[in-house]
Every structure is written in structure tokens, then in C-alpha cells.
Amino acid sequence: MLINKKKLFELALRSLKTAANAAKVKLSTKTEKIVLLGDGSAIDSIAFVNFIVELEELILKETKKNIPIKIDKIHSINTGKKKLTLSDFINALFKIINAKE
Questions:
Q1: How far does CA 6 lie from the centroid of its chain?
Q2: Which of 36, 40, 61 is CA-nearest to residue 51?
């Protein structure tokens, strides 16, 4: 396992808070329910890109491996949903990262 789900969540939340602060957006206190993409998204598309870039950098620092985050792979795991929540994102990303081992 390259990274456990708890650590991945911590890194994603840190990255999301950085992106939200830069976009001057306040995040919900129910972090697992935060919508990243779709109706009711907490951040705009620019902040989402910044979130992904920052998260890739944090994962690289943590694992010493470059793991690009491809949103189409996330969506292929998260099929049938009209929104991408932080918890769904983490679950899908965890599967993708650890499948590469």
C-alpha cells in the first residue's frame, strides 16, 4: 500500500482548504459531505484544479512517487452519481493509487 485512506483524506483536506482559502470560499464543517464537482460544489473549477495540483504534490512528498490524478478515472469508479463529494473522491483515488502497486 502506497498510502492509507486516513492519510490520503488528511492530505486532500489540507489541499482543499488551501484551494478554498485562495478562492475565498468557506467550507462546510461536514468535510466528508463537501461537494467537489456538480451542483452545490464548494469550489469553482479553478480552485478544483488548484486542489488537484496541490494534492498531487502532497502525495508525492508523502510517497516519493509521482501519481497523477486523472479525473476521468475518478469518474469511472464513481459512476452513477451526479456529484463528486470529498469522501467519494477519496475512496476512488485510494483504489486508483493502491491498484498501481
A1: 13
A2: 36
Q: Report pLDDT for 14.
A: 94
Q: Is 74 exposed, middle or buried (0-12, 13-18, 19+ CB in 10 A)?
A: buried
DSSP letter, residue 2 = -
Instruction: Write the DSSP symbol of residue 27.
Output: P
For the stretch 7-60, pLDDT in tens is 999 999 999 999 998 888 888 778 778 999 988 898 999 999 999 999 999 999
Q: Where are the alpha helices (DSSP H) in the chain?
A: 5-22, 45-63, 71-77, 86-99
